[in-house]
Structures are given as C-alpha cells and as structure tokens.
Amino acid sequence: MPAITLPDGSQRSFDAPVTGAEVAASIGPGLAKAALAMKLDGKIVDLSTVIAEDAKIIFITRRDEDALEMIRHDCAHVLAEAVQTLFPGTQVTIGPSIENGFYYDFARNEPFTTADFAAIEAKMREIVQRNSPFIRSEQDRDAAIAFFEAKGERFKAELIRDLPGTETISFYSQGEWLDLCRGPHMRSTGDIGGAFKLMKVAGAYWRGDHTKPMLSRIYGTAWRDQKELDAYLRMLEEAEKRDHRRIGKEMNLFHLQEEATGSVFWHPKGWKIYRTAEAYMRRRLEATGYQEVKTPQLVDRALWEASGHWEKYRENMFQAIVEDEDKTLALKPMNCPCHVLIFRQGLRSYRELPMRMAEFGACHRYEPSGALHGIMRVRAFTQDDAHIFCTEDQIASETVQFVALLDSIYKDFGFESFRVKFSDRPEKRAGSDDVWDRAEGALKEACAIAGVDYELNPGEGAFYGPKLEFVLRDAIGRDWQCGTLQVDFVLPERLDAEYVGEDGARHRPVMLHRAILGSFERFLGILIEQYAGRFPLWLAPVQIVVAPIVSDADGYAEEVAAAFKAAGLAVTTDLANAKIQAKIREHSMQHVPVIAVVGRKEAEARTVALRRLGVEAQETLSLDDAVALLAAEAMPPDLKRLRD
RNA sequence: GCCGCUUUAGCUCAGGGGUAGAGCAACCGAUUCGUAAUCGGUAGGUCGUAGGUUCAAUUCCCACAAGCGGCACCA
Predict the structure, then answer these.
(1) CA-CA distance, A189 to A134, in Å (whole number)?
(2) Which of A's residues 435-464 have CB atoms within 7 A of nucleic strand B?
(3) Interatomic CA distance for residues A590 and A430, integer angstroms
(4) What pTM did the predictor assign?
C-alpha cells in the first residue's frame, strides 16, 4: 500500500496502487488541473504511471523548468504527426528536445523547405487544439519491429533492433498517430500550448554517421508561454547584431573573399586589435617563463611522416610542390614537430626542464568547406601555441600553472567563466594503453590539484594524448574550443626527443601542447561578439576621436589629437563639415569609446569635453588631465597590475 | 564533404524574359551649428562565374564557386 511523500514532507497513504493523476486529484482540483507530469523518486515520469510502492513525488506544472523539456519533446511528436499527415510516405526517425527547442529527423526523397513551414505549423496547432491524450503502451520486441516494417518505417525498425534486449519497447500515441518513444510525455497534446515556432531545416546524417543516409531535419523552438517565446526570438535578433561577421564589416575590421577562402584579410583596425592582443600575450608568456621561437611554414613531408601527421591528416594539409626539386613540402598544420626539432638541437639536461617553448605559429589546415565559419573556423590561422617539455613528475605542476595563467588571461579579456572538457582516448590512437593510462592519470591528478571542474568528453582526445579543452560561447550560442592542454607521450618518442637525467642516462621528456586563445582569429571573433564591438579602452582600435564643433576649432583639435597620440593613444580627428550630432552618431555607431569634443570654449580654455560611448554626460577636463586620465585608463590590464 | 537556402551599387535590400531601382555611405556645393542623422546636387552596377534555351537572359535551365543554416569533421 503506497505511502507517498510530497515535497513539503507530508505523506499520503493509499489502499491500492494509484496513478500520479489520482494522487494529484486527491490533493486538490487545482493541482489536478496543473500537474503535467511528476518526478517519481527523482525521475520524471508520466502522470499516468501507477505507483505501487512507497515513493516521493514532486508534481511538475507549467511553472517548473522541467516542463520546458516535456513541452519540447511533445512538440517533436506533434511535428512528426503533422508532417506524416501532410506528406504521406515520409518516414519518421528520432525527434528529441534540445536546448531552446526540439527537432525531428525525417526520411523523405524531397527535403523540406521553409516554404513548408506555414502548412506544417498550422497542422501542428490543429493537433494541439485537438487535445489528444498521450497514451503509453508497451509491445513485444518482434511485434514492434514487424509493426514498423509493415508500415515501411525502416528507420524505426532499425532503432528497435538495436535497443538492448532488456529495454522495454514503449510507444506513445496521440489520437491515431503512434511513435516509438521512451517517454515521458505530458497528459495530452493540449498541454503544449501555443508558444512554439518552426525555425529552420537542415540535413542531418542518420545516426550522426556520414556514411549513412542524409535525413531532413526540422528545427523548432518551444516555450511555456508566448512571453518566453517572444523573449527568445528577441534574444536571437540581438545575438545577430553581435555576430562578428556583421560587426567586422560594420567596423571595417577584416574581410574574407573567394580568392583566399578561409583566410582573413585583416584591415588596419582589426589588425590593431590583433596586435594589441598579441603584445599582451607576449608579455604574459614572458612573465610566466616561456621562451618565444619562430619555426618554418614549409616543412618537408619527411618530418610529417615521422610525426605521424602525414598518415592521419595528409588530406587536410596544403602541399607545396616545387618543379625543380624532387621534394614535397607541406604548409605546417601545427607547430609541435618543429618545436621538437628545436628541442633536439644540442644535448638537453634535466636542469632545463620544464622548457616552455612558445610560438605565435601560423598554421594552415585544409578544413572541409562546410566547416568554415567567419573567422572562427578558417584554413589559415595563428595559434598562441606552446609546448612544454617536462618530466612526468612535472605534468601536474605545469598544468596547475597553465590553468592559473589561462584563467587570468580570460578574465583580462572579459571572460569570467568558461567550460572545461576532459577528452580521453579516441579509438584511433598512437601509443600503448599503458602510456594512455599514465597520461590520463597525470592529467586527472593535475585537474584535482588545480581545482578544475570538467565534464568528461569520452573518446575525443587527440590521437597522441588526452586533452583538456577550454570552451567559450559565441553570441549565437555556439561553443568554441579556445584553450587546450594536451598531454603527449607519443611525439617525443616518434621524433626522438631526449634529455640527460640526473642519473646521467637519457630519458624521454613529456610534451604538453597548450594554447590559451587557441587561434587569434577565433578568439578575436569571440571577443568581438563578447563586447558587441564595444571594446574596452585598451583593446579598442580607435580609442579617441577628437571632434571639433566648428571649423574654428580644427587647429586646436589637431593639437589635442597630437597630445593623445604622444601619450600612445590611438586617436583620430573628425574635421568633417558636419554637425556635432552627426559626428557623435557616426563614432558612437563605430563604438569608439571616447569622443573628445572641442568647440570655441574648449579651444579658449585649453580643455576637452570627453563623451564616453553611450553616455550622454560629458566631463570637461584640462587637456593635460585628459591625456593623463585616458593614458592610465588605456593601459592593458597586466601593465596596470604592475603599476599598482 | 553532405542536405537545403542565398548571391543585384561600398553597405542593407527591392525588382523582374525586352539589357535595372531605393535608403545609407561616397563625391561636389551651401551651411559653422554644443553632444546619436543640416540641406541640395552628382556619380556609381558585365545583376557571383561559365555554359544552355530563346529573336532577346540579370530574370528560365544546368554546372561551378563563395556565403549562410545545420550535419559530418576539427591534430
């Protein structure tokens, strides 16, 4: 006889097994109406689930966050029914809820287009209106397979065939329509409400496998009410305005063009930001005991063969053939083998370890055309790369130091938080299991010491070793790996790096591959989006515009600009024959952090009126004070710390 | 690479089988003005590239390229 404990601690006993719906009804009609599903001992289940034993339950209503996932999953089912009703012959596959919405993958010769959305969405609303209860049923495995095969649903049949034998095969129906589904679902299609919208179509491989057929995927978004949906759509619009490709064009930072697909043409202002970031990184690395090097772009394939890259990544490498020479050179896709070559010059001593070798290394990779994305994913990029040659014992302390450096640098660039993923051994890999055990163990231990919380990313390590990935998110909600730390026992072996130990014998060093920004291109892309183009003063490509109100003040404006320039500030003048309002608007839209306005009064008094981006209030200072103030403010964060 | 969509002036976009249009920007002129658009004028395009259909293609068809959205990939 089940005794049911509610969230407030109260208990209710029943003489016989009851459904969640019955429990809710026994508590009150309000709850009976509001409850969509329940958490039974922590697991979300249908309200129709029969409770036979003592349990803790929490009812889920529209107000709960958990309701979102159910609304989205239910929406996917409704989408599938709508599509099969409107487009007979379309096969269903899978349709999960995802962040912000849901999708459903369909198999159909003719892929869907957004032109189909109006009809599909209308049909979906009809199904929601119909308010059909979701009814769960279970079936015998073979019967289920036969059922779907008879309907011509070969993808569903395949899914069932691949389910573990122990798994119950459950179905959910809504009206006449039925789908294989683990559940749970809400009570009926009406519980979905109206706050959903179809968003986009896309191709997607069956089971995420590029050797399998391409399905037609429809994405939708769904929320608890119209207000949430509207807020989400507004957020997407705002995100679009921050897109680095758009801001890059608006602020004239860079461009991309067909003649050099996947390579960035940096314009003066974009390059200024790049150089500021690079100079900052160089100071941080030098202060942390790194030595900077520079290695060749073109390297003989023999080196890539020795390192193992030729075998695994040849199709992704740009090759340079010179007619007169019987040699194949490749543009380096990474810097590590070259760094090993520097390490191998001369006999190394254990006293030199850890050796931290840094390079702003320009690399080229022939990325698949579909992977290119603005300046975030390109074919030519520069890594803030470094390799730390160390002993196995030093992995932990080097990792701890690295994480501290990365954390400090991300904060200086305005990123307060980031995600860390731990990627362990992939299926295709070099090195023995024993070596992998040690490498993964050392990295895990280092994370524990450094206090790094990570999520496990199984099987996603590099072929030569496990890695930590430091992930930042762009304006559109896409995650990008920026920083990385990879433990490598393999490459030193392959390229025969060694040092003389305390014992006088030769030993293999361990290599830690590490980057903080990852690639400058990607990082600057994310930085543009992070600030929506409104860079802090130290990073802004144009820090100050001096704008005279009348042409009588032009001479003084030039003088003011010269004074700022002498203090190392990036300043321009705007002597255009335009009203001050127009100048303010123009430079505000260009996200210039400070506009120094000078009119007759200022010229007379030798002052400037400073107007900060987006702030109407102005402060009038003497020219000398203004220069001192802004010069101090524009100091990069690391130098500021040194000064203070 | 795969599926779909897109490509027209520097930018944002409209148009459409009879060789193109707007706004902003640019240039010229007037205006000298106190904190997010002063007014007027001028100029600007092989309609992504290459084929095909047609009396005629920027428009229709095919191929390719690049971009966009996903998927796959990401040393």
Answers:
(1) 7
(2) 462-463
(3) 50
(4) 0.94
What's the rounded Cα separation, in Å, for the pair A35 and A26? 12
**What amino acid occupies position A81?**
E
Domains defined along chain A, listed by start: 3-60 (3.10.20.30), 66-239 (3.30.980.10), 254-531 (3.30.930.10), 544-643 (3.40.50.800)
Query: Is the CB of residue A165 inside 7 Å of nucleic acid strand B?
Result: no
Active-site annotation of A, residues: 336, 365, 383, 385, 387, 467, 513
Helix, strand and coil content of chain A, in percent to the nearest 5, comes to 40, 30, 30
Q: Per-residue b/e over A484-509, b at no fewer than 16 CB within 10 Å?
A: bbbbbbbbbbbbebbbeeeeeeebeb
The chain-wide mean pLDDT, for chain A, equals 94
Does at least one atom of strand B sit less than 7 Å from the CB of A212? no
Nucleotide nearest to A214 (CA to C1'): B3
* Strand B nucleotides in reach of protein CB atoms, 7 A cut-off: 1-5, 11-12, 30-38, 65-75
DSSP calls for A28-82? -HHHHHH--EEEETTEEE-TT-EE-S-EEEEEE-TTSHHHHHHHHHHHHHHHHHH
Query: What are the CA-CA distances from residue A275 to residues A278, A280, A325, A571 (Å)?
Result: 5, 8, 37, 16
Cα dist. A640→A459, A563, A630 in Å? 42, 21, 13
DSSP state of A323: T
From residues 359-378 of A, which are strand B contacts by CB within 7 A?
365-374, 377
Q: Is the pLDDT of residue A476 over 80?
A: no
Interval A150-202: pLDDT, tens: 999 999 999 999 988 888 899 999 999 999 999 899 999 999 999 999 999 99
Question: A423: which 2 tokens?
Answer: 């990627």
Interatomic distance A84 CA / B38 C1' (Å): 60
**Bridge partners of A502?**
none
The reported pLDDT for the residue numbered A35 is 94
Q: Tell which residue, A385, A343, A340, has the closest CA to residue A362.
A: A385
Which residues touch A119 (CB under 8 Å, ≥6 apart)?
A86
Q: Which nucleotide is nearest to A261 (CA to C1')?
A: B66
ipTM: 0.95
The answer on pLDDT for A429 being more than 90 is no
Are the C-beta atoms of residues A500 and A593 closer than 8 Å to each other?
no
Q: For residues A174-212, b (16+ Cβ closer than 10 Å) or e, as one string?
A: beebbbbbebbbbbbbebbbebbbbbebeebebbeeeee
Residue-wise pLDDT for A297-337, tens only, equals: 999 999 999 999 999 999 999 999 887 788 899 999 999 99
From CA A25, how far away is CA A47, in angstroms rounded? 11
Which of residues 85-124 of A have CB within 7 Å of strand B?
111, 113
Quickly give A275 CA vs B34 C1' distance in Å: 36
CA of A331 to C1' of B1 (A): 21
DSSP letters, A387-444, are EEEE-GGGHHHHHHHHHHHHHHHHHHTT----EEEEE---SS-SS-HHHHHHHHHHHH
